[in-house]
Amino acid sequence: MSRPGATGVGIVGAGNISTQYLENLTRFADVEVRFVADLDLARAAERAQEYGVAASGSVDELLARDDVDVVVNLTVPAVHTEVGHRILAAGKHVWSEKPVALDRDAAAALLADAEARGLRVACAPDTVLGAGIQTALRAIARGDIGEPLTATTMFHVPGPESWHPSPDFLFAHGAGPLFDMGPYYVTTLVHVLGSATRVQAVASTSRQSRTIGSGPRAGEVFPVEVPTHHAALIEFGEGRSAQSTFSFQHALPRSGFVEVNGTEGTIVLPDPNGFDGTSTLWTYGSDEPTALPATGPGFGRGAGVVDLVRSIRDGGTERASGAVAAHVLDILLGIRDAAEAGQPVKIDSAVDPIAPLPEGWDPAAATG
Questions:
Q1: What's the CATH class of domain 7-123?
Q2: Domain ranges within the chain, ordered by starting residue
């Protein structure tokens, strides 16, 4: 049954991640999923039936619908911008899975196309909108650590080939730990420290091939095409900086670590690849840390789609915007380029400061 006041949403791509989006978008009151599209029509139909979506079919059929205003692009990264331009040409707003593009020019062209048409592009990750990270961002905004100055992030794992049944794409060009996991960490840093201005980096590759450890392809050897470790120094405005490492070559796993240091204290944020979690605050003069449990409703992927829909309706700016995603991509490409060239890379793009969400923000609430 159609929900009065809900914005019509379509899904392109019925793969594994679509289940996470559909689980939430089908219960968020301000949106209504009205169509699931995929090259595999049977898979699209199966996914639509699974989540009670009324219709499914081809991408062309989806883009021809007048009752869909926002299209969620869950295709593979290599065609994100191609599909994004098709969505815009159909007069619909875009929510894209990360990355928004694979290079700077493609990202800029997509955003320019949207602006020329009076439409919007927004992009994952929306984990930064979760109650866990947002609780920490509100603590920083109200001055709990004073002025934020530096940050440290770590994503250290042995690599996904031990558990992922088809991990080779994660070691191919355009992936690796930098581009697969980097968006979660760097997006959080941009929300905390603002726009980056320059990066320096080094990289290494521990092995030229990996072996799949589980699933039907177990034992298959595949090549490693990209560095499996990047260590970066990211400079932000007003002398702020972050040290970040992204690695698939640590036998000792340490991931989900984001620490921000300020003039009055230090805060450790929850895993930026999650929507919940407790932050821990240390302040000068205090003997014990303070736990800051996540405040606000719990939710998952798709919250950014709701923020986009409400921002369009109310005339505001969505927090997980295409501009932020393009700036994060610029930083990640800068890290890659700095490591390859062995010299610093200037970051020319910039974004406006991003205010935290109100504590009571709830993507499941009906606000239309």
A1: alpha beta
A2: 7-123, 128-300+328-346
Residues in the chain: 368
To the question of domain 128-300+328-346 being in CATH 1.10.10.10, the answer is: no
Same fold, 7-123 and 128-300+328-346: no
Quote the mean pLDDT of the chain. 96
**What are the tokens at 278?**
């407790």
- Look at residue 76 in the predicted model and tell me its pLDDT: 87
Q: What is the pTM of this model?
A: 0.95
Which tokens belong to 162?
A: 């031990």
323 vs 283: CA distance, rounded Å: 34
Beta bridge mates, 228: none
CB 195, CB 347: distance < 8 Å: yes
Band the pLDDT of 2: cuts 50, 70, 90.
low
